[in-house]
Amino acid sequence: MVLTDAKTYAFFVLQSHSHGTTRYLILDSDAQIYWGQSSRPIHVVQRTQPLGIARLPRTHLEVSDLFPPYNPLTMTEFLPSPSQDPSAIFTKRQNILSGERILTQPEAYAQLTMQEIRIAEELGKQPHANVCAYLGVVVDRRLRNRRVTDIVYKRYTCDLFHYVSCGLLRHRSQISHILAAVYAGMRHIHSLGFVHCDLRPENIFLTLGADAGNAQAVIEEVVVGDLDAAVRIGEHVELKAATREWWPEGFEWGDRARTELDEYSFACLGPWLGEWLEKG
């Protein structure tokens, strides 16, 4: 007698990995989730039919480790209107398949999402022109207990690192404008009782006017974003923080968050921009 698996399987996430391999999350018809890796490239794996997906190597994961439950009392569900321009929004999901954390600390992904939702909801109540505009969370009802998979923000043109590396930084006045905006956004985050903990160029976003790829493009907005490292002042920094060159000397992983952490990162930003300006 041959036993057959009555469940069905589908890809939940597919992602290219190193050396042409592919990592994936699989969701079954009982709302269980698995992760696995294939030696084949993503364009081949994504053509796998349902019966083939069922035969792929997979390891069971707890859904609760990856995605937190939706709480309608404390979270704002993002429900796009028919008139919503998809290009005007940015949907952020934890990069679950990129590193080895999925093998060693998978619960960190749900914790990081919850950490970000906590400050995002505060920003939703008290928005600021220099902090990314929060629009709500995406709730996946295929997952038990209605899990939050994504956080939605307004989309900006580019991050600050991209802006300067494309040669768009040409004048000292641009630096002054950027620094003033970042400082205002940072101070607003501090006023809400949080420390950003990862204030660096990749997490500062700009909206550019017409001819966005031209050095003459006007900077219309500068905002601080990417908030999943943010914790309340005095809490331990345990899940995520800025890379070492943006940390103050003496600050160690697991230390309590202080506003001085962001202030040090901000103090590094001016010289960093100045160096890029000198490069031309």
| Residue runs with pLDDT of under 50 for 5 or more positions | none
Q: How many structural units, i.e. domains?
A: 3
The first-level CATH class name of the largest domain:
Mainly Alpha
The CATH H-level homologous superfamily of the largest domain: Transferase(Phosphotransferase) domain 1
Quaternary state of the chains: single chain
The number of helices is 8
Number of strands: 12
Radius of gyration: 21 Å
Any idea what the shape is? globular
Order of helices and strands: EEEHHEHEHHEEEHHEEEEH
Give the biggest sheet: 4 strands, antiparallel
CATH topology (level 3) name of the largest domain: Transferase(Phosphotransferase), domain 1
Indicate the percent of residues in helices.
25-40%
Strand content: 15-25%
Please report the distance between the alpha carbons of the first and last residues.
Answer: 73 Å
Strand order of the largest sheet: 1-2-3-4
Question: Would you tell me the overall average pLDDT?
Answer: 94
CATH architecture of the largest domain: Orthogonal Bundle
